[in-house]
Fold this sequence. Notes:
The structure holds 2 protein chains of 2 kinds. Chain A is mostly beta strands. Helices cover 12% and strands 42% of the residues of chain A. Chain A has one helix at residues 4-22, and strands at 31-36, 38-44, 50-53, 70-75, 81-85, 89-93, 98-106, 112-113, 119-129, 141-151. In chain A, strands 1, 3, 4, 6, 7 and 9 form a 6-stranded antiparallel β-sheet that branches. Chain A starts with a helix and ends in a 5-residue tail after the last strand. Chain B is mainly beta. In chain B, 11% of the residues lie in helices and 43% in strands. Chain B has 1 helix and 9 strands; from the N terminus they run αβββββββββ. In chain B, strands 2, 3, 4, 6 and 8 form a 5-stranded antiparallel β-sheet that branches. Chain B is elongated, with a radius of gyration of 35 Å. Chain B starts with a helix and ends with a strand.
Amino acid sequence: MLTPRQGLAAGLTAALLWAAAGAPATAAPIVITKVRDLYFGKCDNIGGATYIVDPAATPGPSACVGAHAARFDVTGDPSAKVQVTSSKNVTVTNGTDSVNVRTDQAPSGGNITLDANGELVIYMGGEFKVSGGGFTSTNPLSGSSTLSVNYKGGGP
Amino acid sequence: MKKTLLFTPLLALLLALAGTAQAADQTFSIDIEIRSPITFSVINPALDFGIIESPGAVTTVEVFANDGPHNAGVGAASAKFDVSGDACCTATVSTSVTTTLGLTNAVTLSPSSATLDFTTGSPKTLWIGGTLDVDPADPTGTHTGQGTVTVLYQ
């Protein structure tokens, strides 16, 4: 018969062996580094105009002067599948005027994978439409959103 | 014995939970700057070389890109606009003749290109002048054409 101390030691040993053999593998923590924010640039105050920033390294032909997509550098386990989420609609305001920004992310969909080095670059663009009457104020508009990345299925 | 067995599954469960990866979040901002569109206020819509006597030889007349005086006929005047733009930016000016006067020689507009710097104030006054070689063969009478001035943000 084991003493209480011997019994505890045996139990700890069994627990460690069970954890090593049957528990999910430990994954590297996902780290998101924001390289830059989403900036639509200097947009003309024309009622009905739509301005678009492509979710890419270059903003595209429908962007205003100086625009750029947000960029995030993600690291985690090599070749791991991840889920990337963010708000599709964000309100930006200057206190006088408000406008809805529809965000556009790349890559998107349900099949996003970190590369063999465990790295992934995510771009966040978007579009907004100036109301028919145009903006009342020319003060800059600003808002914020959150990008979330997690492993699919709880781990790689 | 029984007490020892009770510890085992509970401790194993705690070790398993400690190995699970957590999601990561990153907040980012979305910013828009609004720029006032470029607008024209027409002060004088016509570049007018004035009344010119038919010359004996080819003679160059010039309307300067200002309020004058000009080296042209009686009543000569430059086209004149007040152009407004946003204090953020500069703009480029380009001019072109879209319909000629139907004379022997063509009008050369001045400036053919320019820059308006709205960062130092708005509106900016823009004069459009030009030069014309008047030929003795040119018919008498009034001759009218059209030109275009374009101002775009850089």
